[in-house]
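Explain this protein:
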Amino acid sequence: MRKFSFLIIASLALGVPNARSQKQLMVKVNQPKADIQPTMWGVFFEDINLGADGGIYAEMVKNRSFEFFRPLMGWAVKRKAEGDVLVVNRKDVNTANPRYLRVTANNASKGDIELVNEGFRGMGIKKDLRYDFSFMYHQQQPGVKLTVELLDANGKSIGGTTITPQESGDAWHKATASFNATATELKGKLKITIEGNGIIDLDMISMFPGDTWKNRPGGMRADMVQLLADMKPGFIRFPGGCIVEGFDLSQRYQWKKTIGPVEERQLLINRWNFEFAHRPTPDYFQTFGLGFFEYFQLAEDIGAEPLPILNCGMACQFNSAEVATLDELDPYVQDALDLIEFANGDVSTKWGKVRSDMGHPTPFNLKMMGVGNENWGPQYVERLKIFTKAIKSKYPDFKLVNSSGTDPNGERFDYLNNELRKMNADIIDEHYYRKPEWFFENAKRYDSYPRNGSKIFGGEYAAQSDKTVSVDNRNCWLTALSEAAFMTGLERNADVVNMASYAPLFAHADGWQWTPDLIWVNNLKSYGTPDYYVQQLFSLNKGNKVVPITLNNDVVAGQDSLYAAAAIDTKTSELIIKLVNASNKAQETSLSLDGVKKLASQGSLTVLQSDDLMAVNSFNDPAKVSPKQSTIKLSGKKINLSAAPYSFSVLRVKI
């Protein structure tokens, strides 16, 4: 790792023998060359690294409905006598949620029958915060009392309450109670003690913190959503990722099973449960408390366009390579058509009414979707053509994102790129997980792409400090700096590249399968990596018109280790310059602005910088590499800007 970083430092410094000599950059402010789409910079969400359950979905109880393949996984059970606690399966009655817990109390006193849930790598508990506890129950007559307690890491009670269920009969009922915690704990637990006489059936045992996003009951972790909102992303892609495909088709993501009452959403094993032998996660399942309705709602909350990705009748080609035959494809296609109706349909339509009944009568205004995730080969193309014909026939203006496979080059990519362009694909999704050198070297990748026809979505990218799927990958400043350099090339070619997103998005410090990742969390805290701040700065300083910026009459894409892009924000009448200095020396630049009558007397300069290419942010030092903003004085129509070593600078100037 260190050897690699030194090689990079040396290679970047080779191009700057006279780093102190001033570089003359020309910006042609009056020659806009391309529109920057509102969707240019977005976020990619996948339920990997405990991203949903145990992450942004704020449920604190693991295996709340006993549907894991080991029904009591996550639970420790203490019984007074054998048979006092049983798992009952009612599969013929309820296929979506067949199991529940039957507890028989015979003069049970405190300590005789206990259920302890360990949470997702523990439970993050905050002092004085309200916690909302609930469960479904069924009993023939009252007779038992439940004591609910939060425990710290030493087993000490730090808050709780008691509940005596009163409803009886054959129907299921819901009981709720709220209480405040008396201490803060990173890895707490939940204990339920049952006393008294009687038989009670328990299901959907649940607890949420009181500070969810927008204070929605059963909602999302506010700190994690806030990090997304702070980026002001143009879109949010969901639900993945490889979980769309599944190991085989039985494990594929099916959006219709993720809507409606949470107790009726059918749990599914997460394909990252068993994907990597070096990072096994046997307790990783999808409860779909975070389902398609919640994804659409999240996109609306943070002002992002929704971009759902649907299975195209193909499972993961790295795993089973299972496909649905073409004559079995109709249900998959119908799912796509129904999703558009769910998102956009009037309340008088079947799926529009379902959306309305869930609390959102107005449409979500869905404009695009992806068909297939990282699929490839002729088998993908022939299925894609069927989807495209069906969707375009009914919704001709609807945009479709198509996969170009797993890599940004090679035989697989070349075949798909050729076939998709012959199909006049709306948007081609390219992925690049490569070392930092690749990102520096490919800042001109899209300069030679055709300006007309299919547009590009940089759907998944992240610089790998070690190698892809290595546990040693780090979100260090080197990776972020290389991504910033590459992104100047994406922005410069905004007439070709309409969308881009880093991936993966979230990672739990104690439950990750893949690294690097944009945002790291534990049960109490979250922080953005240096890569996060690069993404944020591009998104917050997008502009809407690309203008040329050149050095020695060429685009600024590696000369003397400089990379640059320029844009105009016509709404605010500002010029936005993004400048990367990838060398180990400060570089003096002079920006000549062609086509500007007058500049404001000062501008805003934001710099992301570290002298240590291996620097990382952490829970203890979350802002180690983070933006620093200042004001610079201006005069005339030239701007002198000193670019610090290993820096990414964003300059905004009123024109």
Q: What stands out?
A: The chain has a mean pLDDT of 95. Residues 378-394 form the longest helix (17 residues). The CA atoms of residues 90 and 99 lie 6 Å apart.
